[in-house]
Design a protein that fits this description.
single chain, 440 residues, alpha+beta, five-stranded mixed beta sheet, five-stranded antiparallel beta sheet, 11 helices, 25 strands
Length: 440
């Protein structure tokens, strides 16, 4: 028998949607909506019909099987089903003082495959987002270059382009878990990550056009056009390798929340370096030590010193189902699934434990397995109703093994904010309730 999962509450639904769920409670989709709202008594509501009873959803034809549907192109831009409205990126209440300098978390527990829908891509802003007129936007390249240039969007989009799939992860992803288990669901423990197909011109092409000195000029300064004047140092090695000046995401133009009309894509490096609303790139001979590299995105070490320029996102993974705030409704078979990634290359292997790390089994890696992109893994599990601790442990193609939280704390202490790539543990209680715990 395959077990069923009560979804994690996806946030508060409106009274209108809750009323709609009540009216449709006899249908499967109505029950699914009630699950999304965290309805009380869901276990009994989802009970299978008694033997010999007919399922009304099969025996009685619904209106959509007997009537005329919506016309073609009823909406010029397609939208998700109304039954999926509760799946949203969400803020963490009280995380920041103002919403313009905050984060929205991606609902990893509700996604499939490796591509994040553009409308669910996580956000991190330092002074709010803008919808900039692309006809007025400019990109300037200067510094140690033979010919400084200013590019319009038309100039850039006429150049040879590339499309590549990469993850972007905020350096502060999982930050709240440094001290102890702090938040209930995977959306909040790991939701500052997304994976998309980005389209643009290779940064190396622009540097070549401008005649950049790539020997003396070992660093770049990337500057954004938003109110925070986000500026980040990028090593020249990254620029000449796989960095992209991107205007496209998932087959369309970037969304305003993700940097429209232009952003920098630096695969494998923490998201703050993927500068949005990109307006200037300067070539220099040393790091620029900007404000966001001096006082933010640095690692506080146990001896009181700060570690700077630790930009690469190390190998990491997380089980997304079953995960925190979900409930297993039955004993039996479950598909454990999750995501793994590495800023240094491809994921080579993911091991899964259901007993807190005492025993491990190798999961299936689902294709495509791409460099510096999310990788989906799956493994079969027969739950017998006893308590369990679910964990995943990723290994990348450099041989790096994702550490336990106590191994990471032995080096970094407990006062860090950034770059937490520790193994995540989910406790399954005898009741089937799944919660966030830490296992050493």
């Amino acid at each position: 028998m395959s077990g069923r999962i009560l979804k994690a509450p996806e946030g508060q639904l409106s009274p209108a949607l809750l009323e709609e769920a009540r009216k449709a409670r006899r249908s499967f989709m109505g029950k699914a909506l009630a699950m999304g709202a965290g309805a009380v008594g869901a276990k009994s509501a989802l009970a299978a019909p008694a033997v010999g009873d007919g399922d009304p959803a099969i025996l009685q034809l619904p209106p959509h099987s007997t009537g005329l549907g919506q016309p073609v192109a009823a909406t010029g831009y397609g939208n998700p089903s109304k039954w999926e409205k509760n799946i949203q990126r969400r803020q963490s209440p009280g995380l920041t003082q103002v919403p313009q300098a905050s984060v929205s978390f991606c609902p990893l527990q509700s996604l499939f495959g490796i591509i994040t829908p553009s409308g669910l891509h996580f956000e991190r802003h330092h002074q709010g987002w803008w919808d900039i007129d692309p006809s007025q936007h400019r990109l300037m390249l200067n510094g140690l270059v033979r010919e400084p240039r200013v590019f319009t969007m038309d100039d850039l989009m006429r150049l040879p382009s590339v499309s590549r799939i990469h993850f972007i992860e905020c350096g502060a992803n999982s930050a709240m878990e440094w001290g102890n288990s702090a938040v209930p669901s995977v959306q909040y423990t790991h939701g500052m990550i997304s994976c998309s197909e980005f389209t643009g011109v290779k940064l190396s092409t622009l540097l070549e056009i401008c005649g950049a000195d790539t020997k003396v000029g070992r660093y770049l300064l990337a500057e954004g056009a938003d109110g925070s004047s986000m500026t980040r140092t990028i090593p020249m090695a990254n620029a000449l390798d796989d960095a992209i000046v991107a205007w496209g995401m998932n087959g369309e133009m970037l969304r305003p929340e993700n940097g429209y009309p232009l952003r920098l894509v630096v695969p494998g490096v923490q998201g703050v370096s993927w500068v949005k609303y990109l307006r200037r790139i300067e070539v220099g001979d040393q790091p620029f030590f900007t404000k966001d590299e001096e006082i933010h995105y640095v690692d506080l070490m146990p001896n009181g010193m700060y570690r700077q320029f630790t930009s690469v996102q190390e190998c990491k993974s997380v089980i997304t189902t079953p995960s925190g705030s979900q409930t297993l409704l039955d004993k039996g078979f479950y598909n454990i699934t999750g995501l793994a990634w590495s800023g240094r290359g491809k994921v080579k292997r993911v091991d899964v434990s259901v007993d807190g790390g005492r025993n491990w089994r190798t999961a299936r890696l689902e294709g495509p397995i791409l460099s510096k992109a999310l990788t989906r893994f799956n493994i079969d599990w027969e739950w017998d109703g006893s308590p369990a601790i679910l964990q995943s442990r990723a290994v990348d193609d450099t041989g790096y093994v994702q550490p336990k939280i106590n191994q990471l704390r032995a080096v970094r202490g407990t006062r860090s904010i950034y770059h937490n790539n520790a193994i995540q543990s989910w406790r399954v209680a005898e009741t089937g309730d799944v919660s966030n715990v830490q296992m050493y």
